[in-house]
UniProtKB/TrEMBL annotation:
Keywords: Membrane, Transmembrane, Transmembrane helix. Residues 404-450 are annotated as: Disordered. The keyword Endoplasmic reticulum does not apply. The chain crosses the membrane at residues 12-33, 59-79, 143-162, 174-198, 226-247, 259-281, 301-322. This is Alpha-mannosyltransferase alg11p.
Length: 487
């Protein structure tokens, strides 16, 4: 290939977008940190017991470490992708690329032996964001990883809309933006930290800033107990699924960029719509249990659709046997050379090829690690909540709940008996477990966090199945507990 001349008009917009990306991540991190501080500062005195403080002190560092690992993984693979993309661009234009970061023929120290970087020209010629998305989407095996993140972010946005509004967590949009700009596992673990520090709904205080007052004047706050009509969530969700389904067919066309951008914008709809739509587009429930069936059906539908999409993606990935399926636009500088990769392709199984596609490219590896870390975080969160597998399946699988209840008739509590359940954690994610006798008011049990055991989008088996079940499963368990109590 003949070298391409560097004498072209330099565009500064791509460089501005990259700088804005980094600055936005820093700003969102600061916004979320302020939200965490405000949440912890405004905790009521009832959340300051020794048992709750000990539990929070044990769990908070775990999720903080997971968030740090997710951030480090995202940064490492992003730099690896940038390095590979720049090397390909430099090779096409016969430009010297740095051999190392520091030393002779490196970037630093500046001097005669340093290699000059043409970052602005590289970004002007290379659509780095579009290339990354196309590399993930253009082959069925790689899209097997990418589709999981797309489905997970879509359902996780519903979680933020439901659980975030219930706890009145500020700046929900920042968590979702971090999922797009960094990765999902980082945003998840930061949100888990918020849930640990906000086991009860935050006080609804009037905004003191001018921007907040203008926002409340334009979009009046909704009354307590207001729940938007589920059709608002379903409309944005279904449209997003259509775009995810359509995305592979648009790779390499001018439509792909529009599909990718619109798909990411739609994920913000569940977080934004409840704040901007009129109150008449929803229902006010005097008892929060009245919304259980709505949210349960919503997440069960999400789980079913996600599972169907994942089955389709798995089947396409297993059946995809095109020659050189691992090759892409940056294959010239792959560490995994052609001969070794071809031998591996001939000897491994179809499942091994799908899982091995994570090593095709740094952007695919970044997504694959995000899937794995998200699954680890979800599994750890489920373990700390003592969730039951039968409840998970009942909340994510149609008709499973009916069979489970037939097999296990409800157990009545005898007078004076005591029960010990995960739901009886004295209204806190970090609370101590307490007992409750029959005949006592159920109000204490359902105050704070135990009113709604944090609807978490459950996909512990993230690399194998999309079971977005934990939100409705948590509410199903509480509803079952209240039924037993009232009986």
């Amino acid at each position: 290939m003949a070298p391409v001349s560097l004498e072209q008009d330099v565009k500064y917009l791509p460089l501005s977008l990259v700088c804005a990306h980094a600055a936005t991540v820093a700003y969102l991190g600061l916004t979320v940190a302020r939200s965490l501080h405000k949440t912890y500062r405004d905790l009521p005195p009832s959340q300051g017991t020794r048992a709750r403080l000990v539990r929070r002190s044990r769990l908070a560092p775990v999720f903080a470490v997971l968030a740090s690992v997710s951030l480090a993984v995202a940064g490492y693979w992003t730099l690896s992708y940038a390095k590979l993309s720049y090397r390909v661009w430099a090779d096409q234009r016969s430009v010297n690329a740095p051999v190392r970061f520091y030393g002779d023929n490196g970037v630093l120290p500046f001097g005669e032996n340093a290699t000059r970087l043409h970052v602005t020209r590289w970004l002007s010629d290379t659509p780095v964001y579009l290339d990354a998305l196309e590399i993930i989407t253009e082959k069925a095996r790689r899209f097997w990883w990418g589709q999981q993140i797309d489905l997970a972010i879509t359902s996780w946005s519903l979680l933020l809309a439901v659980e975030g509004r219930r706890r009145r967590i500020p700046s929900l949009w920042a968590y979702l933006a971090l999922a797009h700009l960094v990765n999902l596992s980082f945003a998840q673990n930061v949100f888990y930290l918020t849930l640990l520090l906000a086991p009860v709904p935050m006080p609804d205080l009037p905004s003191a800033s001018m921007l907040g007052r203008l926002r409340n004047r334009a979009f009046p706050p909704k009354p307590v107990g207001w729940v938007p009509h589920p059709a608002l969530f379903l409309a944005s969700y279904c449209l997003n699924q259509v775009l995810i389904y359509w995305a592979p067919a648009t790779v390499g066309t001018s439509t792909f960029a529009s599909v990718a951008i619109l798909s990411r914008i739609l994920t913000f709809a569940p977080v934004i719509l409840p704040a901007v739509v009129p109150a008449s587009w929803g229902t006010v429930y005097s008892d929060h249990h009245g919304a259980y069936s709505i949210v349960t059906d919503l997440f069960r539908f999400v789980s079913s659709v996600s599972f169907v999409f994942h089955l389709k993606g798995t089947a396409l990935g297993l059946l995809y046997n095109a020659p050189d399926a691992h090759y892409h636009r940056h294959s010239r500088f792959l560490p995994f050379d052609r001969e070794r990769r071809s031998a591996w392709e001939r000897t491994t199984t179809a499942l091994g090829k799908v899982l091995g596609s994570a090593s095709d490219h740094p952007v695919v590896a970044s997504v694959a690690w995000d899937v794995v870390l998200s699954g680890i975080s979800q599994g750890l969160w489920a373990a700390t909540r003592a969730l039951d597998v039968n409840d998970i399946l009942a909340s994510s699988t149609p008709f499973f709940r009916a069979h489970a209840e037939k097999a296990q008739p409800p157990t009545r509590l005898s007078e004076g008996s005591e029960i010990l359940t995960p739901e009886s954690e004295t209204g806190s994610h970090g609370g101590a477990v307490s007992t409750r006798r029959k005949g006592r008011s159920s109000k204490s049990e359902f105050d704070g966090d135990s009113r709604n055991r944090s609807g978490m989008d459950f996909y512990v088996f993230a690399s194998f199945c999309q079971l977005d079940a934990q939100p409705c499963m948590a509410w199903d368990r509480e509803k079952k507990m209240q039924t037993k109590t009232n009986s």
